[in-house]
TrEMBL record:
GO terms for cellular component: cytosol. Residues 9-188 form the Class II aldolase/adducin N-terminal domain. SMART domains: Aldolase_II. InterPro entries: Aldolase_class_II_sugar_metab, Aldolase_II/adducin_N, Aldolase_II/adducin_N_sf. Belongs to the aldolase class II family. AraD/FucA subfamily. PANTHER family: FUCULOSE PHOSPHATE ALDOLASE, L-RIBULOSE-5-PHOSPHATE 4-EPIMERASE SGBE. This is L-ribulose-5-phosphate 4-epimerase. It catalyses: L-ribulose 5-phosphate = D-xylulose 5-phosphate. NCBIfam families: PRK06557.1. Pfam families: Aldolase_II. Its EC number is 5.1.3.4. Keywords: Metal-binding, Zinc.
Length: 225
């Protein structure tokens, strides 16, 4: 199963990106990837320190969260990740963080207004708020899907909890988590000194279109876009 082995390596690598971008504390947060063409996902083991994560310690489950391969219990959010993959076939990766500034917006239950070009580029809209849900079952995933289905934003602020992001692959989901925290931090500081003005809708549309379809190098996959 080369595809599973590759997903184990990629999901393990992306957890180090959560640390590198300062998006998680202790064992909080998790990343998963759909294994293309298999009906499987790969996700972090629950409650294991980031320094201890290896490709071998990642857990493989089916798309209902049942463990197929692995020596560890899977992430507490496995059922929610699995629900997202079942409901959104276009999604190939999911990330979850408690990154500080974005989670502060989640604690207030306040959407982050699309007031910066970088937000229009990545999110194409405000970053929305999803419902509060308890940890452990699929309810968080149901809230993520209910909020993001048909929405441009790949990020949702789950009320009273933190950030969930989706992407065409796991790297894109992690990138959205990085960009979400960056936007949350900048708009937090902006609001300390006055009101924030959302960008006009036509500008958001044009910026989103350019970034999603023309930004980067023409001869290779755009860097994380
Ligand atoms: O907030 C949550 C659960 O939604 C997680 O971020 C936990 O904090 C980490 O759980 P594991 O992925 O280690 O089970």
């Amino acid at each position: 199963m080369d595809a599973v082995a590759a997903a184990r390596r990629e999901v393990c690598r992306l957890h180090s990106e959560l640390l590198r971008w300062n998006l998680v504390a202790w064992t909080s947060g998790n990343v998963s990837a759909r294994v293309p063409g298999t009906g499987l996902l790969v996700i972090k083991p629950s409650g294991v320190g980031y320094d201890e994560l290896t490709p071998e310690s990642m857990v493989v489950t089916d798309l209902h969260g049942a463990v197929v391969e692995g020596d560890h219990a899977p992430s507490s959010d496995t059922a929610s990740h699995a629900h997202i993959y079942r409901a959104m076939p276009e999604v190939g990766g999911v990330a979850h963080t408690h990154s500080g500034y974005a989670t502060a917006w989640a604690a207030r239950g306040e959407a982050i207004p699309c007031a910066l070009t970088a937000m229009a580029d990545e999110f194409g809209a405000d970053i929305p708020v999803g419902p509060f849900a308890r940890i452990g079952g699929a309810e968080i995933g149901e809230g993520v899907v209910a909020t993001l289905a048909g929405h441009r934003s790949p990020a949702v602020l789950m009320r009273g909890h933190g950030v969930f992001t989706i992407g065409r692959d796991a790297e894109a989901a992690v990138k959205a988590a990085v960009m979400c925290e960056d936007a949350a931090r900048t708009l937090h500081f902006a609001r300390l000194h006055g009101p924030v003005r959302p960008l006009p809708g036509a500008d958001v549309d044009a910026l989103y279109d350019r970034y999603q379809n023309a930004y980067g190098q023409p001869d290779r996959t755009r860097e994380g876009a």
